[in-house]
Design goal:
single chain, about 160 residues, globular
Length: about 160
């Protein structure tokens, strides 16, 4: 875990993609538009774990030939999309979906992210959205309420 926190999301993804391309018979690609490590380390670690699970699901179950990961970030939103061209699967978001899917949804919830998984006979697309931290908004509101304090009080 410390290794992942120190290396970060992009280094992790680049390493994993090289490994997949070299050894798994799957063409894997990565696209980054605007992400340069802006997420806090704890959130980035959860993103890494979600990406790791999604990639493993593709390798184990999808019978895909291509996997594409797109990372994007702007002042309002972090977005990760993982798409494969595999056989897809049906899921309901219920406990019967399996521990891997459940853990991805739980991790997304822990970091106040939205996780959406769409799957059909032509592949699967996972989309993870993390809005600009709600905590920053709360801190700004507290600072406005207590303008004479150097630090806003903690809740």
């Amino acid at each position: 875990t410390d290794y992942l926190k120190n290396k970060g999301l992009m280094e992790f993804l680049n390493r994993e993609i090289k490994w997949v391309n070299a050894s798994k018979g799957l063409i894997c690609s990565l696209e980054n538009t605007g992400y340069h490590g802006q997420l806090p380390a704890d959130k980035e670690l959860m993103v890494i774990r979600i990406a790791q699970e999604a990639m493993q699901n593709t390798l184990k179950h999808a019978e895909a030939t291509h996997l594409h990961i797109r990372i994007g970030h702007n002042e309002k939103l972090f977005k990760m999309t993982i798409t494969d061209n595999g056989k897809g699967f049906s899921h309901t978001g219920s406990p019967s979906d399996g521990l891997g899917l459940q853990s991805m949804y739980q991790r997304a919830e822990l970091i106040k992210a939205k996780l959406d998984i769409q799957s059909a006979g032509t592949g699967t697309t996972l989309t993870l959205l993390i809005p600009e931290e709600a905590g920053k908004t709360a801190q700004k509101e507290l600072k406005a309420m207590f303008p004479n304090q150097k630090k806003a009080p903690l809740l």
